[in-house]
Amino acid sequence: MLLAKMITVAVAAIVTEAVVLAASWLVLAVFFGAPPTPSTSLLLGTGFVMDIALITLIGLALAGLVRGSVLPIAVLVVWPQMEMFLINRLDLPPALLTALEPFYSARRLVSATPEWHLVLLVLSVVLLGAAAVALTRRAT
Description:
Radius of gyration: 17 Å
Order of helices and strands: HHHHHH
Number of strands: 0
Structural class: mainly alpha
């Protein structure tokens, strides 16, 4: 059951993000006449899609762990905002950046030369595994 939910959530996130990216690219091309090159668009788009899919799976895992949806929705809303406004805008010391690696990794995914860190992937796998164990124990 959790696998079906994971697939549904991930596909919905990927399709939604792909549509948003395509619409954004068209707006840049039509109204501003300056769309990014196709290779840059594909590279940046892949990072965005991966980031959104992984964050969505993390939200699903948190929903399974806490038996509700308020915390996961809060995480899904706060996570990108925290990353965008705090980590990307401030010149933080390296030690703090290391502590904030799960949040900072999305910035690395979405760049012209991404450093494909797997922090969000590992975090989502760990949380999904924990959710699977918790849901199995609740069912028995």
